Amino acid sequence: MDDFNDYKDVFMTRTIWTEDCKSWYKNNANPTGKISALWPGSTLHYLECLASPRYEDYEFSYFSATNRFAYLGNGFKTITMVRKSRLWEKP
Fold first, then answer.
1. Distance between CA 10 and CA 80 in Å, rounded?
2. Which InterPro entries match (predicted)?
3. Torsion of CA 38, 40, 45, 48, to 10 degrees
4. Which of 15, 17, 59, 77 is most exposed, with the fewest beta carbons within 10 Å of its own?
C-alpha cells in the first residue's frame, strides 16, 4: 500500500485536486490535506487496472491443506438451499 500511496501522491500533484480547498476527498477536509478518495487516473485507466490484476503482488493461502479447490464448497449457492430442497439428489 505504501508504494501505491506514493504513486497516488505524486500523480495528484499534477492535478487540480490538490488546490487549496476543502472537500470530501481530502483527509479531514483539510484544504491542504492529502487526497484520500480519488483514483490516480481516469475512469478507463481504473477499469483496465481492475480487469488485469497483478496476481504476483499477492500471497495466497488455502483453507484446505490438501485441496486448493475446497473453497468451492458443496457446489450450490445458499439461495438454492431454501426450504431444504433435495431436487439435485437421486431418488
1. 49
2. FAD-bind_Monooxygenase_sf, FAD/NAD-bd_sf
3. -80
4. 59
